[in-house]
Amino acid sequence: MSASRAMRPHPFTVSRRAILAGGTVSALAVLAACSSNSASQETSPAASGGASTGSGSAKSLPKSTVVPTELDSGLGSGQADGVFPRTVVHYQGETTINAAPTKVVVISTGQADAMLTLGMCPIGSTTASGAEGPVSQYLKDAYPDQVSAIEAITKVGSRNEPDIEAIGALKPDLILTNIAGKDDADTLHKNLTAIAPTVVMRGTGQFWKTDFLLLADALGKREAAQSLLDTLKKEAAEAGSALSSAGTVSLLRKNSDKLRIFGPISFAGSVVADMGLQRPDTQQFTNGVSNELSSETLDQADGDWLFYGIQGDKDEELTGQALWGSLKAVSAGHAVKVDDDPFFLNAGPTAARVVRDQIVKAVRG
């Protein structure tokens, strides 16, 4: 089937509008049962007896690094939860959704996480690079009662190359995507809107909170999403307050030949910030979510605690590097391998809870 044959008319409107793209649990409640067809990211001074120095030292974050928590002016629908029709202004125009969606396809990072957090399951999802399936294991672990529905989600291509034909075959009543990492976002948007109403988020970990609000708005659940974010931030602050002597927290990821540290505006970095924990001087950068390292600069990944993820490689490709054993976190037994998916691949509320809980578990012992 060609992409054009997969297209079908829908009673919705999409008008192009100039949108400013500039950005300004132990108990995370699930709001509704999920079904496949229903709406319904070196030791601490106290422990080591000395102060951290060099790459393990820290400073206060400038306010400009705060991950946005409110939608840019003009975005969203302005409607109360559950009210349809609603016209949602997003990053590629505006879309009118006539009724509460029940068959949703998600294209981009963290959107399956966001839907499951809100008590809904997508019927289709793309797959992240290197992932075996469209939905990560951490989501199955977080929602064990919904494993059957999650495993029934249809794969519709990759995040960078969605399968338009497969999406059309599912006959969705809503498609969710973002503008990040798309070679031709306009053409993709045109193809998707010919299949079903499509709402476009901004993408990247820096904007995960506002993307969650915009996604929830399209589902008629923005107020519920705001409440969840408020609860999540409160729980993060409470968890972090119990770790005040933890020192600096470093975030590192090894993926193929890429070695990166993650700053305060990355997804995992934002969770660490919400916990009120400190970051090493080398991870205070604000010109991107991550900085690439080489084997010779691996010392920039040091901190009192080092949380690292590895995708598609043997652990030895990181832990066998020459500088690995010289890191203070490694020497102190504070280098912790974490689940790569929630820390570095999926930016959503449930992933944020997993990141928080893994940090707490490691530091508390």
From TrEMBL:
GO terms for biological process: iron coordination entity transport. The keyword Membrane does not apply. Keywords: Signal, Transport. It is found in: Cell envelope. The keyword Transport applies. Its main location: other. InterPro entries: ABC_transptr_periplasmic_BD, Bact_iron-sidero_bind, TAT_signal. One of its GO terms (cellular component) is outer membrane-bounded periplasmic space. Residues 40-58 have a biased composition (Low complexity). It comes from the Bacteria. Residues 103-365 form the Fe/B12 periplasmic-binding domain. Pfam families: Peripla_BP_2 (PF01497). Belongs to the bacterial solute-binding protein 8 family. This is Iron-siderophore ABC transporter substrate-binding protein.
